[in-house]
Amino acid sequence: MMRLAFYAPLKPPDHPTPSGDRAMARGLMTALERTGAEVTLASTLRSRDGSGDTALQASLFAQAEEQIARLIPQGRRERWQAWVSYHNYYKAPDLIGPAVAGALGIPYLQVESTRARKRLAGPWADFAAAAESAADAAAVIFYVTARDAETLRRDAPTGQHLIHLRPFLCRDTLPDAAALSGPMLSVGMMRAGDKLASYRIIAKTLTLLEGDWALEIAGDGPARAEVAALMAPFGDKVRFLGALTEDALQGAYARASLLFWPGVNEAFGLTYLEAQAAGLPVVAQNRPGVRDVLAPGIYPAPEDGAAALAHRLTALLAKPELRQAAGAAARDHIAAHHLLPAAMQCLGRGLSAAGVAA
Is 97 found in the same domain as 46? Predict the structure, then answer.
C-alpha cells in the first residue's frame, strides 16, 4: 500500500467553513485513498495571507519551520512514499511540503498550482517566491484549468510532468435527474469582490426578463445585505434559501429548472459540477476556468452583457425541450469527465509518473 502525506495550505480539508476549496481537498484525499493509498493529513497549517501583510508572512514562515521539524521524523517513522499538496499560490504557498519531501528523499507532487511571477515584487514578494520555489520542486503538477496550464508550461523546469486533472465531484455515480420545472437557481457565497460582482450581473439580467419567472438563491455571507438590496426590486419572485447543507443543496438542484451564475473570476466553480450532475442547464458567461467544467453549449461572452444572459434565460424558460436537451448533455459531460473514477485514474497516472508504486 502506498503511504502518502497530504497538505492543503490554502484551506485544510477539516476546516469548519464549507467551500469549494475544502470540498476539493476532501475529494482528493478520498480519490488517493481509492487508488490504494494510505493518506495522512500531514499538517493543517493555513498559510493564507489575503492582504499582503509581511509580519503575518514572517510568522507563517516560522510556523512552517516548526512543522517541518516535526514532520520529517514522522515521515520516516510512517515511511511516506510521496507528498501531495493541493492549491499552492502566492497568497497561500506551500511552505512545508518541498522541505519535508526533500529531506525524506521522496517525490513531491502538487494539485492546482498557479504561477504569478509578477508578484515577485510587492507585498507578497516572499510568499510569491516560496510558491514559485514549491512549483519548481514538484515532480508532477496536476493542473485543473487551461488558464493555469499556460504559465505552468511556460515556467516548468526540465523533466517536470504536467497532467490535466479535471475538477471532480467526490462520487462514483450521478444523482437523480432534476425535473427541470421549478424556479431558476443561483448558488454563491455572499462576499465583496467577485461573488458580489456576479450577483450584480444577476440583478441586472433579471430586470430584462419578462413573463412569469422565479429565482431561488442559495448562499450567505457578509455581503448578504448588499445582495438583498440588489434583489429587492423583484419582490417575492426572488427567494433566499440561506446557507444550505449538502443534502438541502441537492434538494434545491432537484427542484430547479436551471442554474444561473455568471462566474466572475471563478477558479472553476464547484456549483457548476453539482448542478450539471443533477441535469440542470447552466446559464453562465464564457470565462476562463468556468469554461473548463461546462458541457459544450451556448455561453455568452462577458462583453455581451446582461442582455445576452437574459436572451439565453428566456429561451430556456420558454422551451422545456431545450432545457431537457441541455440538461441531458450536462449530465453526460459530468459522467464522462468529472466524477471520482476519472479522477482516480488521472491521479494514478501522475503517481506512476513520479515513480510512486503500491
Answer: yes
Q: Which cell is 218 given? A: 442559495
For residue 17, what are the domain limits? Answer: 2-171+339-353
Question: Domain containing 109 — which CATH number?
Answer: 3.40.50.2000
Contacts 24+ apart (CB under 8 A), 150-154: 151/114, 151/115, 151/116, 151/117, 152/113, 152/114, 152/115, 154/115
- CA 350 and chain centroid, separation: 20
Residue-by-residue DSSP string for 145-171: SHHHHHHHHHHPPTT-EEEE-----S-
Per-residue pLDDT of 151-172, as tens digits, reads: 999 999 999 999 999 999 999 9
Examine the domain organization and report whether 210 and 264 are in the same domain: yes
Q: Look up residue 89 and give its DSSP letter.
A: B
Same-domain status, 137 and 225: no
Annotate 217-230 with three-state secondary structure: EECCCCCHHHHHHH
Decide if pLDDT at 205 tops 80: yes
User: 207 φ, ψ to 5°?
Assistant: -65, -20
C-alpha cell at 175: 444523482
**Does residue 135 contact residue 88 with C-beta atoms inside 8 Å?**
yes
Q: pLDDT tens across 307-330, in order?
A: 999 999 999 999 999 999 999 999
What is the per-residue pLDDT for 268?
84
In the chain, the DSSP E strands lie at: 2-7, 37-41, 82-86, 108-111, 140-143, 161-164, 184-187, 215-218, 238-242, 258-260, 282-283
pLDDT at 18: 81
Q: Which residues are 184's β-sheet partners?
A: 215, 258
pLDDT above 80: residue 358:
no
